[in-house]
Amino acid sequence: MSLSELWTEWWPLLWPTLVAIGFILASVPVVGLYATFVERKIAAAVQDRLGPNRVGPFGLFQAIADGIKIFLKEQVIPSHVHTFFYMLAPCISLMTAMFALCFMPYGPVSTEYQSGFRMIVMPGLDVGLLLMFAISSLSAYGIILGGWASNNKYSLYGAIRSCAQFISYEIPLGMSVLGVVVVAGSMNIETIVASQATADGILGWNVWWQPLALIIFFTSALAETNRLPFDLAECEQELVGGFHTEYGGIKFVLFFLAEYTHVVTISFMTILLFFGGWHFPGLSGAVDASWQMILLGAIVLLTKVCLVVVLIMLLRWALPRFRFDQLMGLTWKGLIPLAMLNLIGVAIVSTAQWPRWSLAIVSLFLLIGAGMWSTSQLQAKLRRPAGRKPVTA
Amino acid sequence: MTVTEVKPTSRKKKKVEWAEDPKIGFVEAIYLPAIVSGLATALKHVFFKKRLTKQYPEVEPEVPPNYRGVHRLNRDEEGRVKCVACYMCQAACPANCIEIIAAPAPQDDPKWSNRDKYPATFTIDELRCIYCGMCEEACPVDAIELTSIYDLTGLTRQELIFDKEKLLSVFDETSKAGQDPVRTMRGKLGPASEVSSTAANSPPPPGGGRHG
User: Fold this and answer.
1) Cα–Cα distance between A242 and A245 in angstroms, integer?
2) Can you give the pLDDT at residue B197?
3) Are B120 and B19 found together in one domain?
4) Min CA distance, B147 vs chain A (Å)?
5) Prediction pTM value
6) Residues B44, B79: one domain?
7) Does some domain include residue B157?
8) Percent above pLDDT 70 for chain B
9) Is the pLDDT of residue A299 over 60?
10) Is the model's pLDDT at A77 over the cut of 70?
11) Is residue A379 less than 8 Å (CB to CB) from chain B?
């Protein structure tokens, strides 16, 4: 086979992927910068302030100004760091974060392989979900490397905390998603989304049938992004800045972009796995029916994703930060057993071919059971020591 | 955690209350209602609360009448500087930012005929000043006052060292704008400004104290 034949054979497969990769590469910095802008606006609104409103209409150019400013900053490399690893850490962080986006369809994608342009970098991947988790867990390396290479105690503390947190929360994260995988019968993200597009419309979504899995998944995913209330790796009160204490300028921004990319990724995951992806009642139809339908699907998907991103940013102001033992307790004593039991319940329901509503009952039963068990435990712990009686006035 | 209430008036009965530990029930144990209520609080602020931000250059803040901003040197009814160069403010100033050089009032000038002493120079280093207002309190003739001007800026250190003319022009501006009425006006100047017929160490005029 000559080179030109190879070219004619491969080019139709290559260009859609290149376009999709270009799209991801271009959108990550923009989305990251504007996510900071939106976050600042939301933070301001929650605190009864106005937020950035000076640069451009409604302050919209603030993100661009910030970007320019931070790109032009001096590159300071402290003398006590391991320079190579110090420089490598933010790159690994952002790279793995962006890698995870490859498995995210950003618009309607059919379960069959399509030639021509499609809205995903890696279509039809049968181990999509597994590979996604495998790669997004690599971002722990970026943080650990950053903390260690900084040669700074606080950075190392932050990195170690983050390491423990990552390892602990990977377990419920994976296990909660397994329930969805068992029901859909595939790890292919497109298939999982298609399995939610039933005639029931909105009731086909997994959120109604596996709410416990959603709660566990969302909580663990939030912990994976190192955001409040799980941002012990960078809590300012205790660790100066955590693993990025020694980073400034563009290197700091790479860490930040990675964090926001993670937020976007978990929002995508939440929507794709639990909220029917690009499907919405009344908008169902063949995925490749027409470009209008595809565009509409993409808009539906991205709107849902934006809502989740906003929810994550609001959660930051709704919840206080966990203490470290509480953080570990939550996952090891709460989420992991719950995720296991949930998986067992889902497996039993789908093996016995019971109706779908029994899944919701399993979820509810587990949640109530966990609550009651936890109540009894807490009350045993809080019981007053003997001899000290409260004096009522 | 204990809450103790002790009434200062009643001696015999001290009211001691034990604050109970919060009850952790089922609702608290499953976290979710607390998260929802936290989100509701956040959303309440987003949608229903008034924004407290003041858009500064467009909307100027209203400073309270006792605000301590840039200094001014007051003029008396005849337009002369009220200051009698007694050095009280300079002595009171904890930041040592006031520098006065006194001179005898120009006696050949009929305008100054009833004044004994006046400041030849009066310099305040506005960068050194801590705006404590002690000069204002120390002044026996209410000559120095702090105005409500809060946005003092300059491009050089030199231009923020205010001399007598600058301080008088601050008086002209602020009293014209009406934002800073002469706050501590007690009528006439005090005895310190009056020409003593005898030596400098003469006893105070009969009636003592300040006029007005």
Assistant:
1) 6
2) 40
3) no
4) 29
5) 0.78
6) no
7) yes
8) 76
9) yes
10) yes
11) yes
Which residue on chain B is closest to A393 by alpha carbon? B17
**Closest CB to B52 among A49, A368, A391:** A49
Nearest to B30 among A47, A319, A371 (CB): A371
Is A371 close to B29, i.e. CB distance below 8 A? yes
Find out whether A182 and A362 touch, Cβ atoms under 8 Å: no
B208 in a structural domain: no
Query: Among A46, A316, A372, which would you mutate to test the B interface (most chain B Cβ atoms within 10 Å of its Cβ)?
Result: A46
Tell me: do B43 and B76 sit in the same domain: no
Contacts of A347 (CB under 8 A, 6+ apart): A182
**Whether residues B43 and B85 fall in one domain:** no
Question: Which residue has better confidence, A241 or A270?
Answer: A270
Res. B202: pLDDT tops 50: no
Residues 181-210 of B with CB under 8 A from A: none
Contacts of B57 (CB under 8 A, 6+ apart): none
The one-character DSSP state at A59 is: G
Please indicate, yes or no, if residue A298 is contained in any of the structural domains: yes
Say yes or no: B13 contacts chain A, CB-CB below 8 A.
Answer: no
Q: What ipTM was estimated for this complex?
A: 0.77
- What is the rounded CA–CA span in Å between residue A211 and residue A221? 15
State whether residue A298 sits within 8 Å of chain B by CB.
no
A6 — contact with chain B (CB < 8 Å)? Answer: no
The reply to whether B32 touches chain A by the CB within 8 Å rule is: yes
Whether the per-residue pLDDT at A320 is higher than 70: the answer is yes
In a domain, A388, yes or no: no
Specify the higher pLDDT residue, A384 or A74.
A74
B45 contacts chain A (CB < 8 A): yes
Contact B55 A50 (CB under 8 A): yes
Taking residues B43-57, report their average pLDDT: 88
Which residues of chain A have a CB within 8 Å of the CB of B52?
A: 48-49
pLDDT at residue A386, rounded to an integer? 54
Would you place residue A30 in the very low, low, confident or very high pLDDT band (cuts 50, 70, 90)? confident
- Structural domain boundaries enclosing A199: 79-377
Range of the domain at B79: 71-193
Chain B 65-94, CB below 8 Å of chain A: which residues? none
Pair A165, A230: CB distance under 8 Å: yes
Contact B35 A48 (CB under 8 A): no
Query: In 10 A of CB A70, how many CB atoms?
Result: 15
Same domain (yes/no): B42, B75: no
> Is the pLDDT confidence value at B205 over 50?
no
Polymer length in residues for chain A: 393
State how far the Cα of A384 lies from the Cα of A368, in Å rounded to an integer: 26
**Tokens in use for A201?**
């419309």
Residue B62, pLDDT score: 84
B1 touching chain A per CB within 8 A: no
- CB-CB neighbors (< 8 A) of B35 in chain A: 315, 318-319
DSSP string, A178-220: HHHHHHHT-S-HHHHHHHT--TTGGGGSHHHH-HHHHHHHHHH
A387 touching chain B per CB within 8 A: no
φ/ψ region of A138 (left if φ > 0, alpha if ψ in -120 to 50, else beta) reads alpha
Is-contact B122 B83, C-beta < 8 A?
yes
Helix/strand/coil for B75: strand
